[in-house]
Amino acid sequence: MSSIVEKQNEVVDEFSMFEDWMQRYEYMIELGKSLPLIDERYKTDDNIIKGCQSRVWVHADMNDNDKIEFTADSDAIITKGIIAILIRVFSDQTPKEILEANTDFIDEIGLKEHLSPTRANGLVSMIKQLKMYALAYSKA
Predict the structure, then answer these.
(1) Catalytic residue check, 93
(2) Looking at 52, 58, 86, 98, which residue is catalytic?
(3) What pLDDT does residue 107 have?
(4) How far is CA 17 from the centre of its chain?
(5) What is the C-alpha to C-alpha distance for residues 39 and 108, in angstroms, rounded to an integer?
(6) Which DSSP string corresponds to the chain?
(7) Given CB 3.0 to 4.6 Å as the disulfide criterion, which of 54, 74, 91, 126 pairs with 80?
(8) Counting beta carbons within 10 angstroms of the beta carbon of residue 50, is it exposed (0 to 12), middle (13 to 18) or buried (19 or more)?
């Protein structure tokens, strides 16, 4: 399995292939379509990420290898792409790896500066929520 850093580097490499942000947005929308979708029964208020303009649900499960697997969904296509990137990087990692991971790759691909302030806040909230799940599982 790839480490978080390897997955982050893959994302940075992929985004660097595009010349402009329209192409990157289109790519994010494509990524959103490949998102491991959350089971409908987890689309509850408990799983909504607070601080997001659009609705984003995230669910975490610990698998047999003591790694966390995330599933998610959103009612907005760009947001779905953003959470898809985060899940790709953080899913199937141990709680410790998730908690210790930095998120510099987001700045490297220039994501924050190309999002509206509310979406950028939502991005921060998504990362915080994934780390909260990791923290909860690390204490379990």
Answers:
(1) no
(2) 52
(3) 92
(4) 20
(5) 32
(6) ---HHHHHHHHHHHHHT-SSHHHHHHHHHHHHHTS-BPPGGG-SGGGBPTT-SS-EEEEEEE-TTS-EEEEEEESSHHHHHHHHHHHHHHTTB-HHHHHH---HHHHHTTTGGGS-HHHHHHHHHHHHHHHHHHHHHHH-
(7) 74
(8) exposed
Q: Could you read off the pLDDT of 77-116 as tens digits, one per residue?
A: 999 999 999 999 999 999 999 999 999 999 999 998 888 8
Amino acid at position 115, single letter: L
> How does pLDDT run along the chain (140 residues), one tens digit per residue?
799 999 999 999 999 999 999 999 999 999 999 998 899 999 999 999 988 789 999 999 999 999 999 999 999 999 999 999 999 999 999 999 999 999 999 999 999 888 888 888 999 999 999 999 999 999 87
